[in-house]
Design a protein that fits this description.
single chain; 190 residues; alpha+beta; 8-stranded mixed sheet; two-stranded antiparallel ribbon; 21% helix; 36% strand
């Protein structure tokens, strides 16, 4: 039940009828049904919502890892501006060739925006640059993605943040930074 559609049904409390609702309004009731304490919930840009962030951290004692896009224009602009003149990345991942392509991912993280961004419980902001080469055609592509996480830099280093981002759309256990015990990550699939 972690794969809701864009529009679904939720029963009304004390009523046999079901009301129609959108994905944003379904996230919290779906997460209420499972134990997420000490887990990291990843979500796409649609669910990058202040209410969900506050719910996860304050009420459920979980962390979030959200993609930031145009539905949060001020948040996106602030993060883009900060990372505009990126220098040396914090971590580079050269993935082995897979699915007919060669990928390189670079990540930059910062805690300098934590008190500046108008979003609850930000522990880090990040930028990820992806370079991909199609082995068959030699075609190159490049893209930059931005995001935020409630995890502090002590809890998740750049390599861990990138691993969480790559693991989106799955449920997995990933080792925490610096050899600590494995950290469960739960992904809300949109």
């Amino acid at each position: 039940m972690l794969h809701p559609k864009k529009v679904g049904t939720l029963p009304k409390e004390g009523d046999e009828e079901a009301k129609r609702t959108n994905e944003i309004k379904m996230a919290i009731p779906l997460l209420d049904a499972i134990d997420i304490e000490d887990k990291t919930i990843t979500a796409d840009a649609l669910l990058t919502q202040r209410e969900l962030a506050a719910y996860l951290v304050q009420q459920r004692k979980a962390d979030y890892h959200f993609t930031v896009k145009g539905n949060q224009p001020t948040l996106l602009a602030d993060i883009e501006f900060y990372f505009h003149n990126r220098q040396q990345p914090d971590y580079i991942d050269n993935a082995p060739p897979d699915h007919g392509r060669i990928e390189t991912r670079k990540i930059w993280t910062t805690t300098e925006l934590n008190d500046y961004l108008n979003f609850p419980h930000v522990g880090q902001a990040f930028a990820i640059e992806r370079h991909c080469i199609d082995k068959k055609t030699g075609t190159c592509s490049s893209e930059i993605a931005y995001g935020i996480t409630s995890q502090s830099a002590q809890k998740a280093d750049a390599q861990s943040v990138l691993a969480t981002n790559r693991g989106q759309w799955s449920i997995e256990s990933a080792p925490q930074a610096h050899g600590k015990e494995a950290q469960d990550e739960l992904t809300y699939c949109a």
